[in-house]
Amino acid sequence: MTEFDARKFAVIADIHGNSDALIAVLSDIDAQGIASIVNLGDHLSGPLAARETIEILMARDMICIRGNHDRWLVETDPEEMGPSDRIAYDELEDRHLEWLRALPPTRLLADDVFLCHGTPASDTTYWFERVAPDGGVLIRPEADIAAEAAGIAASLLLCGHSHLPRRVDLADGRTVLNPGSVGCPGYVDDEPYPHAMQTGTPAACYAIVERRPEGWMTSFRHVPYDTARMAGLARERNRPNWARSVATGWVK
Ligand SMILES: [Fe+2]
What we know:
This protein has 8 helices and 14 strands. The chain is α/β, with parallel strands linked by helices. Fe (ii) ion (FE2) is lined by residues 42, 67-69, 117, 161.
């Protein structure tokens, strides 16, 4: 593996088996001459192209951690998996599962960049958002967002999981960043209450971060790509919400 460049790198997350979106993002990263990539997990689960996706990831030089779905793929009895995990699981071989099993839940890079999937303590908690009992998705209070970062000595904290691109700067100067989702721009979930996350764009989303003397400069990139094949795979697997999400960024 080439040495991680902590001054400027790309941040990707929540690919969810969308190999065409991943290819589009990687070629955009390459076109900008960015050599270092961190990947915050939920690599495969969904009715798309899990096997193609993991083959790309295993062949590519990048730093990966695991998301909640990656954990469930290696820890859950296949008979008890949710439908998105099970479809992905059925495409995987033992060597793929071994790769997933070896991923850490969090990482600290260059003593200054912290990676997690949800929050430092939980891969199933949204760092920036909370879900109301009526299904509304609200921004958490500043103090709650800051509390999740307690004790983490890093100036940049990276998270995924909600699929919503957002940056929050804490009062102490640290930056928390969610790069959005490469492959799944909208979804519905039942926990903690039924809700929908929707970006409203099918574009593959990620972020570029660059250390500046004044702080972290961050840019969100929305990369358009041909969604037809992935939406078709979702339809073939009888997952109309996924097909609509991949094609439009909306689920309802
Ligand atoms: Fe997740």
